[in-house]
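Continuing from the previous page...

OK, I double-checked the sequence for WD repeat-containing protein 89 against my notes and this is the correct one:
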Amino acid sequence: DVIAGFLYAILILVVFHPVVDLIDNFNLTYKYAPLIIVILEMTTVEKIEEQLAGLHIAKRSMLSEEPAYLLDIDVSKPAQCESGRFVAVSCSNKSIRIYNRETLSFLREYSSRPGVLNGVRFAHACDSVVFSACSDGTVKCWDTRLAAEEPVQVFRGYPSNVFISFDVNHSDIIVCAGTEKVDKDTFLVFWDARGVTDCASVAKEPLGVYSESHNDDITKICFHPVEPNLLVSGSTDGLVNVFDINKDNEDDALISTCNSDSSVSFVGWSGKGYKQVYCMTHDEGFCWWDIAQLDTEEPITLLHVLDVRDSVCGGNNSLHYLVGGLYHEKAEKLFLIGGTSRGNIHLMGCSTDGLSLVGTLCGGHSATVRSSCWNLKDESLLTGGEDAQLLLWKPGAVERSLAKKASMKLASSVQKRVRVHNSSLKSRKK
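Thanks. Re-ran it with the corrected sequence; updated structure tokens here:
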């Protein structure tokens, strides 16, 4: 009966359209509707995985007069039916470079000297506004329409603050930055980001801080893609914390603490409705949790891989490091990106059964890839690396630009990775 239903479902999908009408009109189709839906979902996931595996280089940026490692990438948020127009890149030479997204042509550059840059983010509602965090204890706001070398707004922290992570929430109202540990203090610092272009001469002071939830460097911050009040943070103390910043105090704001058992290098949101969080660690581990299960008896851990290098891509093309992740809403699936020291990029799919290789992108970078940014509007991927190259990958693209560059040897200009501490980890329920 199951085999007959499976064959019938395939016949329905091949011969008839649309499926919804058939479910309404045929009892037999209704009987096997769940099976048809599963097949449709499988087809969608397989199609998207094929697109990801079929990414090719569409554009390659010109090599700058002052080559530098490309450490972080963000794309301006698209209007309703458009793709983002600009790309912002933070570089190891303490500069922010702005590029045209479609052509990768260089537009302008801003300097953060003497501080070291730790991330770039575009505002969600205005594609000309870009933020950057700096080790000098500031978050700066730049207007890409202006040729001025000065920021239009500066968010200043407290005197001892060294910011190594930050993000802007979905409504562009709150900026949050995470600090290195100084003495015994580690902070999440918050500012009101409204009216950033109206009072450039006045440095904005913090709204307040969270100081009790982490006990070591806060390496990554990520606001929820939809809910502006939800925030996840990761630290070298091994903890991944989820906050609701609408609450009156830090204790009430802390919704969940998940322990990765290692120093956290990356955090993100995933799952339908983005009710899951995941992290990567400095020793290439991966953890994935379902926050929706907090108030149930079900375990919240979906997957914990101690070392991804041991579970994916063996042989000569093995995985050396992790870069970032993407939750694909159409496929309803989480994907990870990693790579090799020679610049090959591995795309991996996540399930509760483990990680699986989706595809490998070759022929682009000649050295370690340090940053990536996905654009789901056109299924494209931007990557930046230690070869000073910014690459745009698209499904089925044919490169008509510059040849591959040789690997750079700029050890003195490399921004150091956040150190991995061996300090004891906090423990909390769930």
